[in-house]
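Changelog-adjacent note: as of this version, every example in the card shows the full chain rather than a window. The one below runs 116 residues end to end.
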Amino acid sequence: VQLVESGGGLVQAGGSLRLSCAASGSIFRIDVMGWYRRAPGKERELVATHTTDDSTIYADSVKGRFTIARDNAKNTVYLQMNSLKPEDTAVYYCNAVYFAPWRNYWGQGTQVTVSS
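Full-length structure tokens:
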């Protein structure tokens, strides 16, 4: 599976962006799709995940502001980011995980910069 992110950019605090992650093949059987981010000088952290049973998990720092959505027909996962804050500035990575057998895939990342 190849994952290609898009939609990053520069936005003012309080603004919105929608990230897209397009997969090279069907995402229907991917067990977990998610978004992670790495801010300058920090380790990569989980932002949001979406499983095949429509369960979602969000980092506390983005709850109520970010929404992950999965469109199996378009083989795409989205991250809608609202009320952006400067601390959301990071490279955002798309991730896909198969449980059996275990396989883990990453996209190349897309930069999100939030100015104050």
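Structural remarks: The first strand starts at residue 3 and ends at 6.
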